[in-house]
Inverse folding.
């Protein structure tokens, strides 16, 4: 989650905090995405040169100053990451901040406060602008910087009917784990995060005898009893998803804006015989 930041020496700070569901999970990777553009679109035909984006972490849980001298700057900040950027290839840029975010996270929820970042650019001057969130403007949310944090997945309690195929009886209806890679699908050029996800699917059959309490609705129970009388010989009960969960996706839209969306029913969590 990002916030309208404080300022330090006239520069807007980016401020982030972990979502509640991420607390307590080890951080594997952290990447800051920022938008870099020429200030005047009429001046895009310029001689190429390299710029450098610098990201500093500003320390202190209760940061309450807006100016520090050059001599004190190092005591308030630490280098978090940098990136060389070509003037001919501007747009969205990503900077690896894994180590800095891991150090911030290791400080503990009671003492870490928000993660405050200062983004500076060598060579930008009046020509190039790094898009930052400014509280006094109505900035386009699709161009705001954001932090992508990859954590280890939480362990989940397995419900009684959420039978995994690895522990199922032969032919039993079960949930088969399946990781879908967006790179394999050729979608990694427009999907930013995640790189893939555990979609899972259901396999097995439902032809075994079932007691009445295992049916999820009365209609299925009636249809199954009718089938056993050879009245519906072509009908076979199917092993199918009973419960799904959603997932978050960050991607580029058709106008090269970055969108974050929560997509429902993307992950099969439980399979059964409806």
């Amino acid at each position: 989650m990002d916030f309208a930041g404080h300022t330090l020496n006239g520069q807007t700070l980016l401020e982030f905090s972990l979502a509640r569901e991420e607390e307590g999970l080890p951080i594997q990777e952290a990447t800051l995405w920022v938008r870099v553009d020429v200030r005047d679109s009429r001046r895009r035909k310029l001689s190429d040169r390299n710029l450098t984006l610098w990201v500093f972490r500003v320390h202190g849980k209760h940061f309450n100053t807006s100016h520090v001298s050059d001599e004190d700057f190092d005591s308030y900040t630490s280098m978090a990451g940098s990136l060389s950027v070509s003037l001919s290839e501007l747009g969205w840029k990503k900077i690896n901040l894994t180590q800095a975010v891991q150090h911030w996270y290791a400080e503990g929820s009671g003492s870490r406060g928000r993660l405050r970042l200062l983004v500076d650019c060598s060579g930008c001057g009046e020509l190039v602008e790094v898009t930052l969130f400014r509280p006094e403007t109505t900035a386009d949310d699709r161009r705001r910087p954001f932090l992508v944090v990859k954590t280890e997945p939480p362990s989940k309690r397995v419900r009684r009917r959420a039978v995994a195929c690895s522990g199922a009886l032969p032919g039993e209806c079960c949930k088969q784990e399946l990781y879908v890679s967006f790179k394999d699908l050729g979608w990694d050029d427009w999907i930013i995060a995640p790189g893939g996800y555990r979609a899972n699917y259901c396999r097995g059959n439902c032809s075994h005898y079932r007691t009445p309490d295992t049916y999820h609705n009365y209609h299925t129970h009636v249809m199954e009893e009718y089938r056993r009388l050879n009245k519906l010989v072509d009908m076979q009960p199917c092993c199918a998803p009973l419960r799904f969960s959603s997932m978050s996706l960050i991607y580029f839209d058709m106008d090269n804006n970055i969108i974050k969306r929560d997509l429902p029913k993307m992950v099969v969590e439980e399979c059964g015989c409806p």
The chain has a mean pLDDT of 80. The first strand starts at residue 2 and ends at 8. The helical segments are 70-76, 98-106, 218-228. The two ends are 39 Å apart (CA to CA).
